[in-house]
Design goal:
With 574 residues, the chain is an alpha+beta fold. The protein has four domains: 194 residues, Rossmann fold; 80 residues, Elongation Factor Tu (Ef-tu), domain 3; 134 residues, Elongation Factor Tu (Ef-tu), domain 3, CATH 2.40.30; 99 residues, translation elongation factor selb, chain A, domain 4 (Thrombin, subunit H). The protein has ten helices and 28 strands. The strands form four sheets. Strands 16, 17, 18, 19, 20, 21, 22, 23, 24, 25, 26, 27 and 28 form a 13-stranded mixed β-sheet that branches. Strands 7, 8, 10, 11, 12, 14 and 15 form a seven-stranded antiparallel β-sheet that branches. Helix 2 runs parallel beside helix 3. It is elongated and about 105 Å long. This is Selenocysteine-specific elongation factor.
């Protein structure tokens, strides 16, 4: 029986030019030659699959179980920046361990901070690698490494990676031009640290098969080979798999893992899958899956959290780069939160309840946003309660194909790459996709997000004990008929109902079912007397004093809610 090979996927991340690729190269060469001697006959016959990812093999460390076996680290070198975000998010479910590569002469840089953010969202364990120590003068090298190590520990102390290992190396002493004979520094120590950090990742073969393809080529007489990492489920020889981007289904003819033919592979495995022939140029990267298991969507509802390092508010109607599945597209957002009546209810994870009402938000609510505008006038309101969960409606500029419940990241990738600012704005989970192109008519009316409306006017005069005339609540051109029957409240405490328009200038009649209070009548009589007196010049001292106390105008409050996606724009009062 073949010795088992345990595969652990290691994401190699860092700021541009921190030496990620050199490190991956140094690791894979040092690893494979130092750990064991590869016998040529052990190389599998038949097709060899270029996985496009380098790997390093070493003996299985004791913490990963007894018996013979090998530990394989698949090094996922995440290249240039926009693709970095896509690569990581696409493979977020299967990166088990992250190596954050830092140029020891520069420390944390913009993209290193972004990599750290992605790591916190997508990964459980991290090792920090301080690279390029050969650039430090030998006499001061040790103290410079210690100083940078302390700095990194400080940076990480409030993240989930606090206390993670920090290793100093020179992956390519002398830089890219140096001769190959120069031996890397610290790489064997790094391999030992990686072994100590390795763990048995949780893998689940159940559910739909989904694989992220990163390489595609054809072999004459065999078919087309797609290599990549299985994100979920499993695949066996003879299975049918769908290539959604090409809208075709193909049969699996053969498979290889680590140059060895296999008949089965599952979540977390890197595998080459050979299927019946198609033009490999049509699929450089992308997803393949169980037929009909992915959906192509035009909009989505997500639960989300703001990324703390993103500066600035997240505004409704703003556009973001939305990374979902293996694609990044532009999308517009609308934020909403639980209705005030439900604010303390426990929210079920990864489920969206269409039966409930939700409150429309002009922006995502965070400590910064709440403390800014709304509280300037009501400082005495004390601590404003933030909702336990907030959601967003995302509307994509072009449809995206993705699995259900996948990770979503919103970013502003058009921000200047050299600006010292985090471009990742929010992350979340896709709860509900909208596959219908006409989702605005077929789907959105089911989404009960409302805006709270509050209008104020004044009582103009009393008609009789049970009715008054109001003004300043509507514009002259408003159709008052649609407001008939809505409840209003007077500042003196009476409840009223809008009865209809009065004249042509936007005035209206209010019925007071329980009648006006005697005090209210007095106030209103004083107000109308004051109005019916002569011009301003005729006012006496007594009038002045009566104006200041009893003759304050009586205000009318109209409060209602309107559902954002209600085609009839009905006004609703509880």
């Amino acid at each position: 029986m073949a010795a088992r090979v345990l595969n652990v996927n290691v994401g190699v991340l860092g700021h541009i030019d921190s030496g990620k690729t050199a490190l991956a190269r140094a690791l894979s060469t040092t690893g494979s030659t130092a750990a064991f001697d590869r016998a040529p006959q052990s190389r599998a016959r038949g097709i060899t699959l270029d996985l496009g990812f380098s790997c390093l093999r070493t003996a299985l460390p004791p913490q990963l179980g007894p018996g013979p076996g090998e530990l394989q680290f698949t090094l996922v070198d995440c290249p240039g920046h926009a693709s970095l975000i896509r690569t990581i998010i696409g493979g977020a479910q299967i990166i088990d361990l992250m190596m954050l590569v830092i140029d020891v002469t520069k420390g944390m840089q913009t993209q290193s901070a972004e990599c750290l953010v992605i790591g916190q969202i997508a990964c459980q364990k991290m090792v920090v690698v301080l690279n390029k120590i050969d650039l430090l003068p030998e006499g001061k090298r040790q103290s410079a490494i210690e100083k940078m190590t302390k700095k990194m520990q400080k940076t990480l102390e409030n993240t989930k990676f606090a206390g993670c290992p920090i290793v100093a190396v020179a992956a390519k002493p002398g830089g890219p031009e140096a001769p190959e004979s120069e031996n890397p520094l610290g790489v064997s120590e790094l391999i030992e640290v990686l072994k100590s950090q390795a763990y048995l990742p949780s893998r689940d073969p159940s559910g739909h098969f989904l694989m992220a393809v990163d390489h595609c080529f054809s072999i004459k007489g065999q078919g087309t080979v797609m290599t990549g990492t299985i994100l979920s489920g499993s695949v066996s020889l003879g299975d049918n798999v769908e290539i959604p981007a090409l809208k075709v289904t193909k049969r699996v003819k053969s498979m290889q893992m680590f140059h060895t033919p296999v008949t089965y592979a599952m979540q977390g495995d890197r595998v080459g899958v050979c299927v019946t022939q198609f033009d490999p140029k049509l699929l450089e990267r992308g997803l393949i899956c169980t037929p009909d298991s992915l959906h192509t969507i035009h909009a989505a509802i997500i639960s989300l959290k703001k990324i703390q390092y993103f500066r600035g508010a997240l505004q409704t109607k703003a556009k973001f780069h939305i990374t979902v599945g293996h694609e990044t597209v532009m999308g517009r957002v609308m934020f909403f939160s639980p209705a005030p009546a439900n604010i303390n209810e426990e929210i079920q994870e990864n489920v969206f309840d269409f039966e409930k009402d939700y409150l429309y938000q002009e922006e995502y609510l965070s400590k910064d946003s709440v403390s800014s505008e709304e509280n300037k006038e009501n400082d005495q309101a004390g601590e404003v309660q933030l909702p336990k969960q907030q959601w967003a409606l995302l509307e994509f500029e072009k449809p995206v194909t993705c699995p259900k419940l996948c990770l979503v990241i919103g970013s502003k990738l058009d921000t200047d790459i050299h600006a010292n600012t985090c471009r990742l704005a929010f992350h979340g989970v896709l709860l509900q996709g909208m596959e219908d192109k006409n989702y605005t008519e077929t789907f959105l009316p089911k989404l009960k997000v409302y805006k709270q409306k509050h209008k104020e006017g004044q009582v103009e005069r009393v008609m009789d004990d049970y009715s008054v005339i109001g003004r300043s609540l509507f514009k002259k051109e408003t159709n008052i008929q649609i407001f008939v029957g809505l409840k209003v409240k007077l500042s003196t405490g009476e409840d009223g109902i809008i009865d209809g328009g009065f004249g042509q200038s936007g005035k209206f009649k209010i019925r007071i079912p329980d009648g006006l209070k005697p005090d209210t009548k007095m106030v209103l009589t004083a107000v109308s007397k004051k109005k019916s007196k002569g011009g301003k010049g005729d006012m006496t001292k007594e009038d002045e004093s009566s104006k200041s106390d009893s003759a304050l105008p009586v205000t009318i409050s109209l409060i209602f809610k309107r559902y954002v996606f209600d085609t009839q724009k009905k006004m609703i009062q509880s």
